[in-house]
Amino acid sequence: MRHWFLERCGRLATSHALVVTILAIIITTLAIGEAKKLHLKTGQMDLTPKNNVVRKNFQGFLQDFKVLDDIFILVTYHKESDAKDFAKVLEKKLVAEKEVKEVFVRLDLETLMDKFLYLIESDKLDKLLASLNENGTLMEEMAKRQDLKTLLTIIKDRMSPKGGPPPDLDKVEQDLSLVLEVLRTMTRSIGAPEKKEDSLWRRIFFPKDDEERLYDEDGYIISKKAKKLLLIVKSSSYLTQQDEVIQYFTKVKDGVEETLVKYQGLSVGYAGSPAITYDEKSTVEGDMFFSTLLSLTGITLLFIISLQSFVHPLLGVTTLLVSLICTFGVTQLVIGHLTLVSTAFTATLIGIGIGFGIHIVACYEEERARGSLNDEAVLATLHATGPGIITGATTSAAAFYTMLLTEFTAFQELG
């Protein structure tokens, strides 16, 4: 029965070669059309079952807080003014896009002035509390009699306490620094009351010699030491599909690049989940194409060198390409996408599939070398190699089919 089937296939291929070729071209064309629809999913959650409890909880968290949709844009500059101007122009450009809800450019410092204690580090707050407790009497005296004589008397008592040990001048200077700053601010306000940057709180929170500070007087998130400025782009909706994330990031990236050409000395980097998703997809697609091309090139050269022939090895590789295209077409119809795991097996499929072609081509050339005609060589080749190829293909398929029993989605799809 098996040999009868193989013989029928062989006679069909030899007696109706043109029809078989046209039919193969039609099937391949249809498979190419389906394979073009195949898209790549690189997310980690695409590798796990949809009913997984952890996945559901995480998706619920994302939907509630939308924290992974933010794109962080880090601008490296030579001139700070160029970076700030770039940020303003980019904000106006991006908020006009429907995918973007808002662009966080700078803090509104005026709304934070009555909450400035929230911005002080905990260790500094502890020192401030200790200083207030220690100097409570001094502050009560100042509150009762708010005049210069009282202030000078308090300063004198602090510098020369009666009946006590000599004061620690460093500590006195630290305790009185706020008082001295108040006097300086009053003096500057008398001379130029309109100068906003000379206010007491601005001098406390924005000292000019503080290079480690990550914000400036205008509220920009900026590191003057590293010469970097941070922008945050927020999406207008919760993005659930990878295609939506890619489209969102691409729109932002295009806007950044269009704005960046107007500025010299600026460079831009991206961070955040959308940037990672975009980079993963681009990298995997590039690596998949490169590894597939390298595999096909390598096996073709080895095929040609080992058989000392050119035409027949190329026909074998062409048959392999048709098989791969049909495989991707069926994958689109059955599954609809590829994952990080399944893309890695493309080179494996090439390595497994070419083995069948090698057996057929080698046996055919051997039959031809014995003097057999073309039709006779084809039939003899199918009789000699057909059963082994069918058995090998069946066992390989069975091994992959066992992956359907696993709970890991990526392995199931591979099966």
What does this structure look like?
This protein has 415 residues and is of the alpha+beta class. The chain contains 16 helices and 7 strands. The protein has helices at residues 2-15, 17-37, 53-65, 80-94, 122-134, 136-144, 148-159, 169-191, 200-205, 242-260, 273-307, 311-334, 340-344, 346-369, 374-401, 409-414; strands at residues 39-41, 71-76, 100-104, 222-223, 228-235, 267-271, 337-339. The strands form 2 sheets. Strands 2, 3, 4, 5 and 6 form a 5-stranded antiparallel sheet that branches. The model has no long low-confidence stretch (mean pLDDT 76).
Topology record:
Layout: H1 2-15, H2 17-37, E1 39-41, H3 53-65, E2 71-76, H4 80-94, E3 100-104, H5 122-134, H6 136-144, H7 148-159, H8 169-191, H9 200-205, E4 222-223, E5 228-235, H10 242-260, E6 267-271, H11 273-307, H12 311-334, E7 337-339, H13 340-344, H14 346-369, H15 374-401, H16 409-414
Parallel strand pairs: 1-7
Antiparallel strand pairs: 2-5, 2-6, 3-5, 4-5
Helix pairs in contact: 1-15, 2-12, 4-10, 10-11, 11-12, 11-14, 12-14, 14-15
